[in-house]
């Protein structure tokens, strides 16, 4: 009896996505300031149960982590978040969320190694918290897009105003997204992949 073809219904019903030799995988970094929504972003779009390194915040973080705009935050990422999403049958993205606090930034060089690009999440209430992440990727020449996380589903400021306030070059895509919703985060990732491909092609013509 012949074996089922890749993608054909399995004996138990439904269909399986079986990776083939044509499948391409790419690494994406999700970065930004403390409490900006990186863990939520990875978790909302991941097809697998995301790996998180959330730890309960203790008194040791008092005076170190600014909770003024995230008063209900009780945990924090201390290493990374990890997830996976298939954009189509031929492209799988592996997502690595960075820790937001400065004291964990020694891990960033390892986390971004081999990445094709990054999503920098921004909270418009705390724009300055994402400046360091943008500087990090610009210094390393890694393509990135800026995702304005719409807390409560509301875009509080125009994209043009955010671009001006953060002095972001016109060539860098800025999009609004809701880190809680899969379709929104997926569209942000698609924007990044397209930007990274354009960046690579432009570099090849120089």
Feature tags:
206 residues; alpha/beta; six-stranded mixed sheet; two-stranded antiparallel sheet; globular; disordered N terminus
Radius of gyration, whole Å: 18 Å
Order of helices and strands: EHEEEEHEHEHEH
Biggest sheet strand line-up: 4-5-1-6-7-8
- Summarize the biggest pleated sheet: 6 strands, mixed
Shape estimate: globular
**Structural category:** alpha/beta
How much helical structure, as a percent, in the residues?
25-40%
**How many DSSP E strands?**
8
What layout of secondary structure does this protein have?
Layout: E1 24-32, H1 38-45, E2 54-56, E3 75-77, E4 81-88, E5 91-97, H2 108-112, E6 117-122, H3 131-140, E7 144-149, H4 159-166, E8 174-177, H5 182-204
Parallel strand pairs: 1-5, 1-6, 6-7, 7-8
Antiparallel strand pairs: 2-3, 4-5
Task: Describe the protein's architecture and organization.
By secondary structure, the chain is of the alpha/beta class. It is 26% helix and 22% strand. The chain is built from five helices and eight strands. The strands form two sheets. It has a six-stranded mixed sheet, sandwiched between helices. A two-stranded antiparallel ribbon has the order 2-3. Strand 7, helix 4 and strand 8 form a beta-alpha-beta unit. The termini are far apart. The relative contact order is 0.17.
